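Is this the right way to post structure tokens for a design question? Let me know if I should format differently. Anyway, here goes:
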């Protein structure tokens, strides 16, 4: 008799191989709203017919809508946590002040809403949002909470680029998942099913012209080596945080966890044909997750070439883009001569099935410890050296950086624009340069490996950005609360201490109201016009901050 555990591999295979029929790729709705609602909740999805999979989603059964943001305008989001565990929401790659960043300190408790308003400072590119609670990031992202952010600006709008969302401009969120015999996701480094925007075995119809794919690696650990089955040349126009100076022709594009790239594919004259986007996993160095490394977790997709997305080419649209532009945007990395200091970050550890453990400078995440302090407005060089046996996609919050060099050589042309993730291969040393423009204001920014299995295993540290004139900010203000949000002008507040003073500022930092002393809790009706405000309660060195929206 077979023991049940011996049956498991067969069952897993049978779910993954049910119905190899192609499914139309889901395209999440693109929303362009004054205020977005992201309802983080539990759902059940049939990725495969008749198989129920428990998921989490953001205002959707799996993944979430694409948020359209406009540079220079505010973004407003209400994150509503319907889960029975804490979550948070991070705007990956966006240059926002610490209080808006949505990292682990900014918890959204079960049943709570986090309203956030932040200025959109990044140039046009593709960003994304995902939860970031301490120790639960990988699990919640694995369950499906994530979505794309498209930032638009006047530079991008002036270019003749495909931008009809869902027609010639498509989000392509690539994730691998492993299904358990009962249909649920296995929480693992690697999956053996590839989902694109949540669709297994996907195909998408594209018109016979130049189309734009916004590629995002939303996988836990797998790195993709993307390219087309016919080895055709495509053009990379943007990486992570903005357009490149000019389109970069290539037949391969590696994409590590958290990285994005926008590519143009010329399908002119191909109506009726089809084309396969693949990952050439057999080409990955052994040190890169997705290879067939003998010490690491194995998966049917490791070290092999596999299909990602079938493109079926249809008739061209009325006003097709048919030409790849010659140039795109001005790319202006900070000058190395302006860097005020160099920090060295050593990535160490050994990846092994079931006992991988990695550190940054020998340290692991401690929410109570600030690891680095930057002065606002200064530029620094970070030298990231990987002495472990695995490549790590390193990510910094707080904005974009530029890659100076990889082992002394300039980065690949498609990596020469603004970046927020850089894959540092085992044995390699990468230098990046970054300007720290936004104050953490008591809410530290994270930097971490974006292999989600490593991030939650503490391969994450934090930094603060302080105003050089006011010195060190406290690590984290205490939490005050306001009800209701939004309010009609009258609201109740609750502060962890009796505040000597209450200060209300608008989102540009201008003081609009001040009063005190006040009891620890009470009701207020300050004379304010509709808008978003920041309330700071203070007593001596203690301070509690929250947000207020008046409609
Ligand atoms: Cu995409 Cu700190 O994360
Ligand atoms: Cu991030
Ligand atoms: Cu890592």
């Amino acid at each position: 008799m077979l023991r049940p555990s011996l049956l498991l591999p067969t069952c897993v295979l049978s779910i993954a191989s049910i119905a190899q029929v192609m499914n139309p790729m889901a395209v999440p709705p693109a929303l362009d709203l004054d205020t977005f609602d992201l309802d983080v909740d539990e759902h059940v999805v049939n990725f495969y017919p008749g198989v129920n999979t428990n998921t989490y989603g953001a205002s959707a059964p799996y993944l979430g809508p694409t948020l359209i943001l406009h540079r220079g305008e505010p973004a407003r989001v209400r994150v509503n946590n319907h889960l029975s565990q804490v979550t948070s929401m991070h705007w990956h790659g966006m240059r926002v002040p610490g209080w808006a960043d949505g990292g682990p300190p900014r918890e959204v408790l079960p049943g709570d809403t986090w309203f956030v308003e932040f200025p959109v400072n990044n140039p046009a590119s593709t960003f994304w949002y995902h939860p970031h609670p301490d120790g639960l990031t990988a699990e919640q992202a694995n369950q499906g909470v994530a979505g794309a952010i498209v930032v638009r600006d006047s530079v991008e709008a002036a270019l003749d680029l495909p931008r009809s969302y869902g027609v010639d401009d498509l989000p392509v969120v690539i994730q691998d998942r492993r299904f358990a015999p009962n249909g649920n996701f296995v929480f693992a480094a690697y999956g053996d099913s590839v989902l694109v925007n949540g669709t297994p075995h996907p195909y998408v119809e594209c018109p016979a012209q130049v189309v734009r794919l916004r590629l995002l690696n939303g996988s836990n650990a797998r790195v993709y080596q993307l390219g087309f089955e016919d080895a055709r040349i495509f053009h990379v126009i943007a990486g992570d945080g903005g357009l490149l100076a000019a389109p970069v022709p290539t037949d391969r594009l590696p994409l590590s966890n958290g990285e994005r790239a926008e590519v143009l594919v010329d399908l002119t004259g191909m109506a009726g044909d089809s084309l396969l986007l693949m990952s050439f996993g057999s080409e990955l160095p052994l040190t890169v997750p997705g290879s067939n490394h003998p010490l690491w977790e194995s998966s049917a997709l490791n070290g092999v070439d596999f299909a990602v997305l079938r493109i079926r080419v249809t008739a061209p649209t009325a006003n097709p883009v048919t030409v790849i532009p010659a140039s795109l945007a001005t790319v202006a990395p900070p000058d190395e001569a302006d860097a005020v200091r160099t920090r060295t970050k050593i990535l160490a550890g050994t990846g092994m099935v079931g006992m991988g453990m990695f550190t940054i400078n020998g340290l692991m995440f401690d929410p109570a410890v600030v690891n680095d302090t930057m002065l606002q407005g200064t530029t620094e060089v970070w030298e990231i050296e990987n002495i472990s046996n695995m490549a790590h996609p390193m990510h910094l919050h707080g904005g974009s950086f530029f890659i100076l060099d990889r082992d002394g050589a300039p980065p690949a042309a498609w990596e020469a624009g603004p970046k927020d993730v850089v894959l540092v291969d085992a044995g390699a040393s990468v230098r990046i340069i970054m300007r720290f423009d936004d104050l953490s204001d008591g809410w530290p920014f994270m930097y971490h490996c974006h292999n989600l299995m490593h991030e939650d295993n503490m391969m994450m540290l934090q930094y603060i950005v302080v105003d050089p004139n006011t010195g060190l900010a406290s690590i984290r203000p205490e939490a005050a609360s306001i009800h209701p949000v939004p309010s009609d002008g009258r609201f109740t507040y609750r502060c962890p201490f009796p505040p000597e003073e209450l200060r209300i500022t608008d989102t540009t930092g201008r003081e609009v109201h001040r009063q005190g002393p006040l009891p620890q809790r009470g009701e207020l009706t300050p004379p304010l016009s509709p808008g978003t405000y920041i309330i700071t309660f203070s007593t001596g060195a203690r301070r509690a901050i929250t947000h207020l929206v008046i409609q």
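Format looks fine. Someone answered above. Worth noting: Confidence is low (pLDDT under 50) at residues 1-14. The longest strand covers residues 36-48.
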